[in-house]
Amino acid sequence: MLTIQENISLKPYNTFGIPASAVAFAEILCEEDLISLLQEDLTGQPLLILGGGSNVLFTKDFEGLVIKMSIQGIKFEETAQGIEVTSGAGVLWHELVVYCVTQGFAGLENLSLIPGTVGASPVQNIGAYGVELKDIFKSCVAYEIATGTKKIFTYNDCKFGYRDSIFKTELKGKYVITSVTFKLSATPKINTRYGAIQEELQRRNIAQPTIADISNVVSEIRVGKLPDPSTIGNAGSFFKNPVIAPMQFQELYIKFPDVVHYPLVDGYQKLAAGWLIEQCGFKGIISGNTGTWKHQALVLVNYGGATGAEVYSFSEQIISKVNAKFGVVLEREVNIL
Q: What is the pLDDT of residues 279-301, one digit of tens each?
C-alpha cells in the first residue's frame, strides 16, 4: 500500500551523502503504486524522481515530493532479432549487468559497475568504454505525471545524445519511467577498443575474451579509478567530456599537443575532462570538506561533512580554471538541486 511520508532525510538516498530533507517522500514498489500516486492532486508541488541517487547533488532541502523508484524484476524473451531483456526501474544497474552476463546475454558488459538504477539509464543515456545505452536500448514504459497516461517510448522517441535524452530536455520532469527493455544478443561482439581494456586483458593473458572477461576487467578498472560511495561520498564523473568543433580543436592542439582526445564524426573531438582538470592542478586536492579523487580528477568527493553548496562552489572553481587555461567550458553531468 502506498504511503506518503513527511520530512524525510535524503542523506541515505544520495551517494554524495549530502544532508538534505524532503517535505514529502513516496517509495514506488510497483506500477500500481505509481498509478495511485498520480491520481493524487500533485499540481503546483515540486517533484523529484529519484533512482539510486548517484547523479544528484543536493544544495538545499527539497521543498516538494520525492518519488523513489524501487520497482524490481528482470525477465527476458528470445526473439528472431535476439534477446529482449526487460527490467524494473528500481533494479540496480550493475545487478542487471551481472544477470545478463551470467545468462550469456551480450551487450551490457562494457557498462559494468556504473552506479544508479535501470530507470535512470535512458534519461542519462549512460555510457562507458565505447558503449552507450542507446546502442542496446529497445524501449521503455513511462507514465505522464500530469495525466497518469501510460506511454511506450521507442528508440526514436527518446532523442538520445551524448549523456542526453528527451527526458532531460523537452520532457524533463514530465514522465516517470517504470521499466526498460534492452536488445541483447547470444552472439557477442566483443568491444575492446578502449586502451585500458586491452592493457588489462593483456596483463591477464586473455587473447579471446568472453563477455564475463570484459565485465570483470571493466569492473576492476572502475574500482581502481573511482571511490566507493559507501566509504567516500561521490557521484562518479561530475563533468561531461566536452565535445568541441574542428577549428577550436586545431587551435587547442597547437597550444597543447598532448591533449587527450577522441575523434568523432565531421572532425569534432571529444576531450577527456579528467585530463583538462588534472592539468589545472586539481587531481587529488582537498578543499575544505570536498575535493577531487586522488585517482581521477573528474570525480568530486565528500571527504566528510561537506554540504552541497560547498561541492558546487568547488566545481565552479574547476570550471573557471579549465576555461581560463584551455578556453573550454565544462558542463556538469550531475544534476544540481
A: 999 999 999 999 999 988 999 99
Q: By the 8 A CB rule, do 171 and 123 touch?
A: no
Beta strands in the chain (DSSP E): 4-9, 21-28, 47-50, 56-57, 62-69, 74-79, 82-88, 127-128, 131-132, 137-144, 150-154, 175-184, 233-237, 243-244, 261-263, 269-271, 286-287, 290-293, 296-302, 335-336
Which one of the listed residues 132, 237, 315, 332 is annotated catalytic?
Answer: 237
According to DSSP, the residues that pair with 164 across neighbouring strands are: 161
Q: What are residue 60's phi and psi, to 5 degrees?
A: -165, 175
pLDDT tens string 258-283: 999 988 888 899 999 999 999 999 99
Identify the burial level of 296 via C-beta atoms within 10 angstroms of its C-beta, where 0-12 means exposed, 13-18 middle and 19 or more buried: buried
183 within 8 A of 81, measured Cβ to Cβ: yes
- Asked if pLDDT for residue 5 goes beyond 80, the answer is yes
Domains and CATH numbers, the chain: 4-69 (3.30.43.10), 74-184 (3.30.465.10), 233-336 (3.90.78.10)
Active site residue 163: yes
Residue pair 200/124 in contact by the 8 Å Cβ criterion: no
Note if 230 is an active site residue: no
Rg of the chain taking only CA atoms, in angstroms: 20
> Of 132, 163, 215, 315, which residue is the catalytic one?
163
Arithmetic mean of pLDDT over the chain:
91
Reading the block at residue 34, the C-alpha cell is: 505509481
Q: Tell me the backbone φ, ψ of residue 167, rounded to 5 degrees.
A: -75, -10
pLDDT of residue 201: 85
Strand order in the sheet with 137-144: 74-79, 82-88, 175-184, 137-144, 150-154
